[in-house]
Amino acid sequence: MKRFARLFAELDASTATLDKVDALKRYFAAAAPRDAAWAVYFLAGGKPRQVVPSSVLWAIACRGAGIADWLFDACYQAVGDFAETVAHVLPPPAHESDLGLAEWVEDRLLPLRGLAPEEQAARIASYWDELDSAGRFLLNKLIGGGFRVGVSKLLVQRALAEGAGVDAKRVAQRMMGYTDGRVAPSPERYLQLTAGADAGPLDLGQPYPFFLAHQLDAPLEAFTTRLAATEDWIVEWKYDGIRAQVVKRASQVWIWSRGEELVTDRFPEIVAAAAGLPNGTVLDGEIVVWKDERLSPFALLQQRIGRKTLTKKVLGDAPVAYIAYDLLEFGGADLRERPQDERRELLEAVIAGQSAIRLSPVESRPSWEAFAELRREARTRGVEGLMLKHRSARYGTGRRKQDDLAGGTWWKWKIEPLSVDCILVYAQAGHGRRASVYTDYTFAVWNRTPRDAAEAEAAIAAIARKEPPAADALQLVAFAKAYSGLTDEEFLRVDKVIRGSTLEKFGPVRSVRPTLMFELGFEGINRSGRHKSGIAVRFPRMLRIRDDKPLHEADTLASLEVLLALQHRPASAPPEPDGEE
Amino acid sequence: MADDLVVQRREGLYCPQGDFYIDPWRPVERAVITHAHADHARRGHDRYLAAAPAEGVLRIRLGDEIALQTLPYGEAIAHHGVRVSFHPAGHVLGSAQVRLEHGGRVWVASGDYHVAGDSADPREDNATCTPFEPVRCHCFITESTFGLPIYRWQPQAELFASIDDWWRRNAEAGRASLILGYSFGKAQRILQGVDRSIGPIFVHGAVEPLNRAYRAAGVDLPETPLVTEVKDKALFRRALIVAPPSVQGSVWTRRFGEHSDAFASGWMQLRGARRRRSVDRGFVLSDHADWPGLKRAIAATGAERVIVTHGYEAVMVRWLGEQGLEAGAFETEYGDSDDEEPAPVPADGELAS
Lengths: 581, 353
Prior knowledge:
Chain A is an alpha+beta fold. Helices cover about 40% and strands about 20% of the residues of chain A.
């Protein structure tokens, strides 16, 4: 545990990739396989289910520190992290433990689940008393299921591969599913990750590491020089669903999400659809809700994911379909080194005999300008933009370096976000690195267009006096929250303004005198009964601070209505994944 | 209340009976100064009264020409019937609590103070100035910069051992160690506490005038040539360099070549603050009281009334109320200085979500 806590501290303090990989390699070289097995699990994003509810931990921490609940909460608000708050408020430990990570997890943490609350409390209090502040922080993260560290899974794979002298891609493939919680990390499993080329019988349902796309940010004029001719590319729509691999082997189907979570049980329609695939087939594609012969918005899919049990009603309200766009394995052979167009051709042949699986249609246009024209239809088609895949591209691992443009990259060419100019009305401090800095904001638009600057000023003055607005008065209506998109410097500037213009504090939230306007971008807009404005936006983020515009020129509810109408205009040409060849 | 010895005014904390201010933030006729940090000792007052050991640093900060009268710690003068005396606060050289006595009542304004831990262990005192002395009073006006239970300073011996380790490892790797801390107070704590045998020590030009004032007051500091006086740059490779936080990422640091940087401040206790600072190391070194220290200092005054200023006022007021004390707060303009403000974020790093 001490060694792992030290590794965690090193990874946490460093920003240099090389230092991180070195720290990982040093750890793996020194740690016992039993401990390293768990270390890989946690570092690669594995999260055991929360073994003790936060409310229980909260109560034990208050008791241990001898402070009242409200005071612990004030601490939590300043720290922005529960595990760290506990680590700081407790008195120094009585003695320090030398147990390894595996013993801590297997003999102490996992058995906590299901114990009577009093027994849990007694054990945790005694564990805390064996660790210093860094160790407690780590323990709390592990108990609470919130362990996160600044390394990617790719970096862990790289460190393991370099340490053992094996190919990183092989390690990556063996690591698929390592963190899904079906099998506990064991020394055997850990040693298999880095075993020689022919060793390691892979779990039958193993998928392949997902190949990720890059954002294409170049201006259209640069496309021809950067990407060359359109004929070199396979262009498809970019779907707004759940990326997933469908694995069919030994007459069994597995569905893996991009988060490497096994989601087979969640999508019986797709299991049924894949039953007809020949054994030794792996598809890559997207799960979407497909209703009334067309794509439905992601919101519907999200609702379905939120359901614990799949009732007939849920299946009827949000039926899913699988849109395939790549073939990674066929006849039991790994096709990932074959060029994109060859895989595509094979995919079409495989899908041709499968009415239940949809094929992502390929679009062709004579020029990038024509594709840009096509891309404008994305919003009405309910997709996010276009995907560009070079015909000679191999199926890589993870997200490749940008400069690796030589045919190996997948590009996502997303549409510009929708945006409105809105006014900051509430703020809350962030978490982690942003603790104690106001970075989470609520934005509002006018309920109608202000007559002039004076009317807007009067409305703001009324807000500052905390007067409830008259029914027909000009007022600001909150409609969205966002916490990303600004630079550190901008956040600090806004933080300062918030502290200087606070009207009221409601727990961690402050209302502020409206002075700042932002351009807020978002991907989609829908009606929602949950917000006062009646509107909900998807993936909101700040595009810029609008110092150039006076507050009375901010957008209104009517501007949101226009965007809503624009997005939900009946599609003139819905994409038809199984036609248009 | 009508007969309070200190009230809050637009210009600062005011003693109506004596007609003077304590650490006023706007120009006034008579200013009683607790210590020489910029948010407490401002320019523009007609007359200043301060503790005698503060004279040197006050004149460096405010100019030689200020009309300054000083009193040794513990010695009182009467002004309009108010007895005024200064008592050590342990914060920086010359820092004092101001004791006011009038009509049988005693009030103490703490300014900023340092006292650490649950017990009065002299090893935890600030060794660069006279340690905090509790003063019995009816009403205590306390700061609350670190007024939350998450702030508990580690033993100084442990802290300086970790600074020495960091420096020693850098020196062995042939890399300069740049430690950032405020020029007045923090820099001298670092210089006084580190192991001088590890390598040479150099300072930024903003630090040295204050070092001289400390040495003149009898504080044992190492020799500290200015960075700009160093001819042979190879010397930096084993050196500790003490500089104010403003140099982080500036061209001034380029002369050191490859170096490791660290920041010394009480705020470094929190991971979020460390990450925002973007330095290699954060050392938790504060010139303020931690939570156990605040509790102990308040209890030692025996005051039944406590007024909380700059920091976590709301938290302290509620907590003190729960302990059966009469508690209130003053809104001040302290805490916004070069002393210990929240660490600003450097320009380049993106805030990770």
